Amino acid sequence: WGIPIIHVEAGLRSFNDEMPEEWNRIQTDQLSHILFTPSAAADGNIEDEGILPYQRVVNVGDTMFDAVQMFSLFARHHETMGVLEWFQKPFALATLHRMENVKHPERLKERIASLNELHQQGIPVWMPLHPSTRNEVEKAGVEIKFFTVPPVGYLEMLWAIQQCAIVITDSGGLQKEAYFLGKHCITLRNETEWVELVDIGANVLYPLGATEPLSQKVRRMLKQPLPQETPYGSGDAAIQIAQFLIDQGN
Q1: Is the N or the C terminus of the chain less surrounded, counting Cβ atoms within 10 Å?
Q2: pLDDT tens for residues 62-82?
Q3: Could you give the strand order of the β-sheet that contains 166-169, starting from the edge strand earlier in sequence?
Q4: CA dihedral 61, 62, 68, 71 (to 10 degrees)
């Protein structure tokens, strides 16, 4: 058809072949003509796999950085977040939804137990709980001892990140949103595609089977200053993409 395929956020790799997202990333990169990458590490991944003759790789930064800069100004409180106003101490914002964590009862029990331990050790945990995760929790007979609310929207989530002390998640996007808004992050996974944040110390992986209590890891992170590097551009990725396409006549 002669229509170019463009991939935004190209080059990301977690190197976990069990994740459906990983295969989607690799195949989309191979099919695409223009690869807009968010970071130098993403550039390196594409180079390692081999750039095809018809492909252009363009590092523009991360469009999510654009979005957070724009919409954090409009972040808003939601009635379901009322419990946050009761906290007299820093709280942890948590999410849990990835198949690798929630679709295996023993793994799910381990993840919830870690969050329960954190909550009981004096750092309140607040989690917008996705319906599918709640269903898996009920099926596994897991007891949640921290605060949960129904899912919230994007602007509400940005507000919650702004208010919290630390983010604990298995989400890819939330790892970056935490950093963009000046918060440490602990990722409930064995690996992440956003390796830059791990490399600079803004994000720490908490794999299954970790022996250190989550509360200890959280307290240690909260004592450390957040790194100031900017691995994902300057917040103008969308403008760069638009200008590139205009210049190319696409």
Answers
A1: N
A2: 999 999 999 998 887 666 565
A3: 147-149, 125-128, 92-94, 166-169, 184-187, 203-205
A4: 90
Q: How many angstroms from the chain centroid is the CA of residue 245?
A: 28
Q: Which residues of the chain have pLDDT under 50?
A: none
- The residues assigned a catalytic role are 97
Question: Is domain 71-222 classified as CATH 3.40.50.2000?
Answer: yes
d(CA 163, CA 186): 16
Secondary structure class of 63 (helix, strand, coil): helix
DSSP state of 38: S
The β-bridge relationship of strands 184-187 and 203-205 is parallel
Q: Residue 32: its pLDDT value, please?
A: 96
In this predicted model, what pLDDT tens digit does every residue of 137-178 receive, in sequence order?
999 999 999 999 899 999 999 999 998 999 999 999 999 999
Q: Which residue has the tokens 């103008």?
A: 236
Spatial distance between the Cα atoms of 237 and 38, rounded to a whole number of angstroms: 8
Residue type present at position 170: D
- In the chain, domain spans: 6-62+233-248, 71-222
Residue 187: burial class (beta carbons within 10 Å; 0-12, 13-18, 19+)? buried
Distance CA 61, CA 66 (A): 9
Sign for the CA dihedral angle at 14, 15, 19, 21 comes to positive
Q: What is the pTM of this model?
A: 0.91
pLDDT number for residue 21: 87
CA gap 77, 159 in Å, rounded: 6
